[in-house]
């Protein structure tokens, strides 16, 4: 349920939330975030319900869930314990894709003129809290579309006229809705997306590094990376199975990938030529010793 | 000199190495790799000079430099001390783009029919060593084009006929030249590209983490990440200056980005609510305290 939904196209329109529900694109009828802390967020609806939301097309600043009264005013602080907010943090930590549905509302050139529209997969690249417009704490998530995802047709062409006017007047202040922030993936971002295989390995080890035992704790959970020993694809062609994946902290992952760490057949760990300990194991996590060996041979220097 | 060259288009053709030199696309007249260990690789030429090279279009398995005799046979082991090979490792560690020039040669459907062709920017996503076809140790680098980079027109259409024949015969073995390995960036890869600003900060600190003092050592160098405290782009709009960047190990970077680590105005470091030490400094690295404060406030939970 994470990722693309069969038989649905980017740009497909839906007249109502009932229809996005029936298509499996966004299943809840009211909540803006579909997901759980354990599995991550499946989908969100961007519909102008939060005053602090900002939509730049390829980048969306999305306000978390909670703290509003029935008329849409923020009346209390938002919390990371909220299931929807916790789901988006899991999506961030695991690098999982989130389906984005935009709903019609005024003030955004990227919203559809009516109803709802599925606009493709985004990743959560950042989050943080701030005091919102109404003076209460809100959590915000930056989502970026995957490269290659087409932008919808903008609906408010008059903003372009505003832009030209501003340029002509020598005023460089660009209306917020027209700015196109740089995609983080081209400059900054850590993108270590978890597959189902990696998530299984990480779950067995409870995000504890199999090499150095570090468990990176972050607000809302803990973080680790699934590392293939024998890399997928050419030229190594490793298998995408749990026996080929280790649960590592980011530092040990860097060192494994660069050959600073290799593992012997007796599971002793060699770092920088020195034995530094033994790989931590889990009874259900059976390593494929062929993968251990092939990783080690990739770094032979004889 | 890293990245795109002004006035040159992807797909542009050059009749000779002299002309790629004059255009600044690939400056050496003979060497296949242009670059240094300190700055990374500017460009490579893929021209069939190494038997172990493989070209899949968006993915290239490129053999490092050295160990060949004048007739192109591998007669000794390759070394990471070779300047070109060391340059490609720096490109990998720093996430820097490498210009790829393909030269005409038989056996690759992605090579131009004659002369040389600039085919855009690639990143080094992996490397390792193996025994080459001639029985000596070689180093190989996996390069992947950036998403959105167009593929050149393949020249050997007969391989498609081979494919159809294989499919018709029920033989699923696909000729190597036609395989299109998954881009690692969509599933696995750490991409923390260093800008000039980040590289300066990392150089000042010699890749030692300013929070935990770890220096990640890998064959061919050491590794750290430049971390913006106040993130670039919406909604935080942090400045891209050295005062806004910390030199961190990957683990501390994850924690800084997720708010598990914040820094006080006296540079004491708070991790998980507990003071764990003081930020390491360098006399030339003057922090912008506004950025320190804004990062901290992004994680307020009052």
TrEMBL record, chains A, B:
Pfam families xref list: HNH_2, SAD_SRA
Domain YDG: 3-145
Biological source species: Streptomyces mesophilus
One term of GO molecular function: ubiquitin protein ligase activity
GO BP terms in the entry: negative regulation of gene expression via chromosomal CpG island methylation; protein ubiquitination
UniProt superkingdom: Bacteria
Protein name: YDG domain-containing protein
Gene3D superfamilies: SRA-YDG
InterPro entries, sorted: HNH_nuc, PUA-like_sf, SRA-YDG_sf, SRA_YDG, UHRF1/2-like
């Amino acid at each position: 349920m994470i990722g693309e939904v069969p038989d649905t196209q980017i740009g497909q329109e839906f007249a109502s939330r009932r229809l996005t529900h029936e298509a499996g694109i966004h299943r809840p009828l009211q909540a803006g975030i579909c997901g759980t802390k354990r599995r991550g967020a499946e989908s969100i609806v961007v519909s102008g319900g939060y005053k602090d939301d900002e939509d730049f097309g390829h980048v969306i600043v999305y306000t978390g869930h909670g703290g509003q009264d029935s008329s849409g005013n923020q009346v209390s602080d938002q919390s990371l314990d909220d299931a929807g907010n916790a789901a988006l943090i899991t999506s961030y930590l695991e690098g999982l894709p989130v389906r984005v549905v935009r709903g019609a509302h005024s003030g955004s050139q990227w919203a559809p003129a009516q109803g709802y529209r599925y606009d493709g997969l985004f990743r959560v690249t950042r989050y943080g809290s701030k005091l919102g417009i109404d003076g209460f704490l809100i959590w915000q998530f930056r989502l970026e579309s995957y490269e290659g995802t087409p932008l919808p047709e903008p609906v408010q062409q008059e903003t372009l006229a505003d832009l030209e006017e501003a340029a002509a007047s020598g005023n460089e202040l660009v209306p917020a809705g027209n700015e196109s922030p740089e995609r983080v993936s081209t400059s900054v971002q850590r993108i270590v997306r978890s597959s189902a295989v990696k998530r299984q390995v990480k779950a067995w080890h409870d995000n504890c590094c199999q090499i150095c035992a570090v468990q990176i704790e972050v607000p809302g959970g803990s973080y680790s990376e699934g590392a293939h020993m024998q890399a997928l694809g050419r030229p190594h062609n490793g298998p995408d199975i749990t026996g080929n994946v280790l649960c590592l902290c980011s530092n040990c992952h860097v060192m494994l990938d660069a050959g600073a760490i290799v593992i012997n057949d007796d599971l002793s760990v060699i770092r920088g030529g020195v034995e530094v300990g033994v790989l931590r194991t889990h009874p259900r996590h059976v390593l494929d010793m062929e993968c251990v060996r092939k990783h080690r041979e990739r770094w032979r220097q004889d």
